């Protein structure tokens, strides 16, 4: 468990001097930990007599009222006195447990702010609860936080909610807290008899004392209490100090932000730390309800500089040119909690409105800079605050999850992940980086919201749901479809449009009413994410939507609630896309016609003449979709034809069996011809790139100076195999220095290297080795992106280059790998510019991927291959191109490269094996399927540490091309018997296993197929397994004769074959990371 004092020491480190730079009325208190947040209020009572804390407009005369710091602190002390008189638990403050006082209200900002700070002032813990919670959620929070008293708003709804929650607690035998009413502004800010004995000092508290309890949104379950101490609040208070604007005296309008929200509570510390002035609604009971018009008028009446609101308000303001004109003259509009419509944002930005997106969570606070000097030109990007120590962990789709690490300025309140030996907080939020601006990111969506279809394609529901929610008849929308071929949507109508959903005519009418908006969404959505009319489910009044504290629908809960309706909808799919339909073994015209006839007959439940329009026989759009889907599925799986070019309205364009059959047959013929043409064109592109980067190699000019020891430049050491190569080099006595080059990243390279070393089972202290020089640079830049001094130092000393860095992405094209290919050429130029007697040996880490189209069962020799062998994946193509450039350089210069093609790597010394690879995916899915596949082939998987040693030993090899694979092949059956025994899962014939995988992909009810059944995401790989090859899964068996001559570890015969101990090591690692269930 994370200990905040492992990172934070008192006094706290000095902050950047950005606040109160020229204020005559506000002097900030010290934020070094010598004062708690509540003690700062006493400090302001004595030192800030003339600075405003609140400004509000008066409805009576249109003027504004200002509350200065002394008046506010006096009211807070009065709230503290009321707290003590009501609760009569002063003696409990000396006990081990401080009483927790919850609030359940939506009172005006000043009354709420004053009350909660008054409770904290006298030493109690405050728990602002969202009144949007259900009674069950409120009861859960009361129980979890051990609440002793609740302060409720005057309105009946709050009393009813509290009463319902308390009744639930009593029914379950739990303690029921006492209920009190929220004090009004008039009471708090009046001068009454007895006020002379108000508390004069805040209760002295430890920095580790919990001041506020906030709660999570409760998207996936009941909300969870999050405990904020005085020390955490000091972190909150320092947020603006890491921005670029002085907020002192700035009028900050936030009347639409509820105080029970995290952003509302931020105001309690920012006012004290920076002197920002909060402009709020006039205190009234009941409180003024914020609407776009009311909030805008408030901002104008109070002459506010910055306005913070929800995006929907901004979208309304955009419609009024006068509003836009006024906003363009202000310091900015801040929004958060949801995305802003892009068209609106673009137009406002163009009109001169400064837009700032805020992002934060209850567990960590505000992540964005508050505030940058200028808004980002691309307004939807956030600037990450320098207060935070962040890591962006990229997935295979190029999206990065935000992870917050602890450090001296900021420690997450909650941790949920271990990065190396560091407890950190993984937010579950995905971002994409700005293409050119460092530290700027745009929000993509929740990692757990991403819908992974049975095809492996993904739908990001957030933007699509936002489009649907703009329809005046739609309150909310939730898109579903995890593990399914296509999406559906659950629509919550606005109150005026709710109806009995068993009335099929009304369902049809409502679908037609919102259909134009769905069509607009479909224009934006990728083809696999589009919604068909019959895939719309209308929420029933008997199953109302439930919401989080952020007023967003509780997605997993609602999908679970509507599971019967969703399953019934997909059952219709299953009935019309039956897996037993015979797929043609050959797609000639006769077979294609018979296949389409069968599909149509099964879908409609009757036979139709070939020339008849199927819609004349009662087919609807849903059935047209099923016909299209099954044709797509059959064509894609049996003939590996890309169906993305097939039109989405295929059946409408070709509405008869005859027309459909003709279209499918012609596309198949065309596709096969195109594949041949594409292959030829791609070979030409590969060879053209080789020619481009093989021009004008320089001649090496040797000197007489030489190095007796090896000095190695190695790239990509923050990857798994790269870390092992680094460890081998540092463990080799003849290697006197290692330059480890890695790309720049927000996380410090030393920390990244330590983390990777530990993750793969190596000593993280190696990252600080005396013979290691860590360098961050981009080798695709001129001079490898290094300073001239460093470049010259390396030119005169480096004896070996091991180029290992390469992005592993099988979905991108060769053109996307151009920077990597340019990096290879730059390294060649660097080697040839060496001042040593001969150029450094250049060891290039290639891949088995260059054999993509090899059609032989014989071992592949360690020789060059034709471009046509590597065509098909940008990754393998880029490796082939680089191989050829190096061979050209060897032919024209004195460079002696060594190309090492790596076979399938297995785990590290601690069992580390990246979960997204095919073997771990197969094992996880086999647990899900309750069986493992049998194969008659063998495997030559080589442990990562052994491969790294072989590579290091090969650095002076004479042969130009070497293969790295295990010299002792192990039967698949041997390995999988160990898996079977350890997992208690039987082995079945491969076809049976594959059929189960196919079926689970089509009919999975799981909401997270990628987690429970990851092999379903790479079905095509398992379908393509060739039983004719000696190596399992259709991978080529590589000859390693030359490699064994160059490497002792491969050639000595002492290396043990893979066995039970290896399997246990992998399984234990996957269990430890949570990839496999601990019971397996």
Features of this protein?
1080 residues, GMP Synthetase, Chain A, domain 3, Non-ribosomal Peptide Synthetase Peptidyl Carrier Protein, Chain A, 37% helix, seven-stranded mixed sheet, Rossmann fold, 35 helices, globular, alpha/beta, 5 domains
Query: Would you tell me which CATH topology of the largest domain applies?
Result: Rossmann fold
Biggest β-sheet description: 7 strands, mixed
Query: Percent of residues in beta strands?
Result: 15-25%
Structural class: alpha/beta
Strand order, largest beta sheet: 2-1-10-9-11-12-13
Annotation, overall tally of beta strands? 37
Averaged pLDDT, please? Answer: 88
The CATH homologous superfamily of the largest domain corresponds to: ANL, N-terminal domain
Rg, nearest Å? 33 Å
> Which CATH architecture of the largest domain is right?
3-Layer(aba) Sandwich
Task: Summarize the amount of helix as a percent range.
Answer: 25-40%
- N- to C-terminal separation? 26 Å
Q: What's the CATH class of the largest domain, please?
A: Alpha Beta
Which shape, going by the Cα principal axes? globular
InterPro entries: Adenylate-forming_Reductase, AMP-binding_CS, AMP-dep_synth/lig_dom, ANL_N_sf, FAR_NAD-bd, NAD(P)-bd_dom_sf
Protein name: Polyketide synthase phosphopantetheine-binding domain-containing protein
Keywords: Phosphopantetheine, Phosphoprotein
Domain AMP-dependent synthetase/ligase: 105-379
């Amino acid at each position: 468990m994370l200990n905040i004092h492992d990172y934070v020491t008192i006094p706290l480190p000095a902050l950047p001097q950005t606040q109160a730079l020229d204020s005559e009325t506000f002097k900030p208190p010290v934020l070094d930990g010598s004062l708690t947040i509540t003690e700062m209020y006493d400090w302001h009572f004595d030192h800030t007599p003339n600075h405003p804390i609140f400004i509000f407009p008066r409805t009576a005369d249109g003027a504004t009222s200002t509350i200065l710091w002394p008046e506010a602190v006096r009211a807070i002390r009065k709230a503290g006195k009321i707290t003590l008189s009501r609760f009569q638990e002063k003696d409990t403050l000396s006990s081990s447990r401080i009483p927790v006082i919850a609030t359940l209200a939506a009172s005006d900002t000043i009354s709420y702010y004053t009350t909660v700070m008054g409770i904290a002032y006298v030493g109690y813990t405050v728990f602002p609860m969202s009144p949007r919670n259900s009674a069950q959620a409120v009861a859960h929070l009361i129980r979890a936080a051990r609440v002793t008293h609740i302060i409720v708003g005057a309105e009946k709804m709050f009393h009813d909610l509290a009463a319902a929650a308390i009744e639930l607690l009593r029914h379950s035998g739990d303690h029921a807290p006492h209920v009190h009413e929220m004090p009004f502004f008039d009471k708090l800010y009046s001068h009454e008899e007895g006020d002379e004995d108000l508390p004069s000092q805040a209760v002295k508290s430890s920095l580790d004392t919990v001041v506020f309890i906030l709660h999570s949104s409760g998207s996936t379950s009941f909300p969870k209490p999050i405990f904020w101490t005085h020390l955490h609040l000091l972190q909150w208070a320092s947020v603006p100090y890491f921005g670029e604007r002085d907020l002192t005296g700035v009028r900050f309008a936030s009347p639409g932000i509820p105080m029970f929200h995290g952003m509302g509570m931020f105001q309690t510390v920012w006012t004290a730390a920076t002197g920002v002035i909060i402009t709020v609604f006039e205190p009234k009971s009941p409180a003024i309800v914020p609407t776009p018009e009311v909030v805008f008028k408030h901002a104008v009446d109070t002459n506010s500089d910055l306005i913070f609101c929800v995006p929907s308000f901004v979208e309304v303001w955009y419609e009024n040119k006068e509003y836009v004109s006024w906003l363009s003259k202000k310091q900015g509009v801040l929004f958060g909690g949801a995305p802003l419509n892009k068209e609106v944002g673009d137009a406002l930005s163009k009109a001169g409105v400064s837009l700032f997106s805020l992002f934060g969570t209850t567990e960590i606070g505000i992540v964005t800079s508050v505030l940058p000097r200028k808004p980002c030109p691309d307004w939807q990007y956030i600037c990450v605050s320098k207060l935070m120590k962040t890591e962006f962990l990229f997935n295979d789709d190029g999206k990065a999850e935000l992870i917050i690490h602890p450090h001296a300025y900021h420690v997450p309140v909650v941790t949920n992940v271990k990065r190396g030996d560091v407890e950190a907080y993984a937010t579950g939020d995905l971002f994409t980086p700005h293409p050119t601006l460092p530290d700027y990111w745009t929000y993509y969506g929740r990692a757990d919201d991403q819908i992974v279809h049975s095809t492996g394609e993904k739908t990001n529901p957030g933007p699509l749901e936002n489009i649907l929610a703009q329809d005046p008849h739609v309150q909310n929308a939730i898109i579903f479809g995890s593990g399914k071929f296509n999406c559906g949507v659950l629509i919550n109508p606005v109150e005026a449009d709710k109806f009995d959903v068993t009335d099929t005519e009304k369902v049809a009418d409502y679908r037609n009413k919102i259909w134009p908006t769905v069509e607009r969404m479909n224009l934006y959505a990728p083809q696999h994410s589009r919604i068909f009319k019959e895939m719309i489910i209308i929420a029933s009044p008997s199953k109302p939507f439930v919401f989080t504290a952020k007023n967003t629908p509780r997605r997993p809960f609602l999908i679970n609630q509507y599971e019967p309706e969703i399953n019934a909808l997909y059952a219709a799919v299953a009935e019309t896309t039956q897996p037993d339909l015979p797929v043609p073994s050959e797609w000639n015209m006769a077979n294609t016609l018979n296949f389409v006839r069968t599909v149509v007959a099964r879908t409609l439940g009757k036979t139709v003449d070939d020339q008849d329009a199927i819609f004349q026989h009662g087919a609807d759009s849903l059935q047209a979709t099923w016909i299209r889907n099954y044709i797509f599925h059959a064509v894609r799986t049996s003939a590996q034809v890309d169906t993305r070019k097939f039109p989405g309205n295929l059946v409408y364009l070709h509405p008869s069996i005859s027309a459909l059959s003709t279209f499918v047959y012609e596309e198949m013929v065309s596709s096969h011809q195109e594949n041949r043409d594409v292959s030829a064109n791609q070979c030409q592109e590969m060879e053209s790139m080789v020619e481009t980067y093989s021009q004008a190699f320089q001649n090496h000019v040797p000197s007489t100076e030489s190095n007796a020891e090896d000095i190695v430049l190695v790239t990509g050491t923050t990857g798994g195999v790269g870390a092992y190569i680094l460890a081998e080099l540092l463990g080799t006595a003849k290697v006197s220095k290692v330059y480890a080059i890695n790309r720049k990243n927000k996380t410090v390279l030393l920390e990244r290297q330590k983390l990777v070393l530990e993750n793969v089972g190596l000593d993280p202290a190696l990252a600080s080795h005396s013979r290691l020089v860590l360098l961050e640079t981009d080798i695709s830049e001129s001079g490898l992106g290094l300073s001239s001094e460093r470049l010259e130092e390396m030119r005169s000393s480096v004896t070996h280059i091991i180029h290992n860095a390469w992005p592993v992405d099988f979905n991108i094209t060769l053109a996307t790998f151009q920077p990597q290919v340019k990096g290879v050429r730059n390294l060649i130029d660097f080697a040839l510019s060496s001042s040593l007697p001969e150029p450094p040996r250049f060891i290039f880490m290639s891949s088995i991927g260059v054999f993509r189209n090899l059609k032989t069962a014989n071992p592949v020799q360690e020789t060059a291959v034709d471009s046509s062998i590597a065509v098909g994946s940008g990754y393998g193509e880029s490796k082939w191109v680089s191989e050829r450039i190096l061979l050209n350089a060897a032919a024209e210069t004195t460079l002696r490269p060594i190309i090492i093609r790596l076979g399938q790597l297995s785990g590290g010394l601690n069992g580390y094996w990246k979960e997204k690879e095919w073997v771990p995916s197969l094992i996880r899915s086999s647990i899900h399927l309750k069986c493992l596949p049998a194969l008659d082939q063998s495997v030559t998987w080589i442990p990562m540490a052994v491969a790294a040693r072989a590579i290091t030993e090969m650095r002076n090899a004479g042969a130009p091309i070497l293969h790295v694979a295990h010299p002792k092949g192990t039967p698949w059956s041997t390995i999988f018997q160990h898996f079977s025994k350890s997992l208690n899962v039987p082995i079945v014939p491969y076809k049976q296993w594959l059929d189960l995988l196919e079926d689970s992909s089509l009919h999975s009810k799981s909401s997270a197929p990628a987690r429970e059944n990851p092999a379903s995401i790479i079905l095509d790989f398992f379908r393509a397994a060739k039983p004719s090859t000696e190596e399992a899964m259709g991978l080529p068996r590589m000859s390693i004769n030359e490699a064994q001559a160059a490497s002792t570890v491969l050639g000595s015969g002492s290396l043990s074959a893979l066995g039970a101990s290896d399997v246990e090591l992998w399984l234990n690692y996957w269990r430890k990371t949570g990839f496999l269930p601990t019971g397996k």
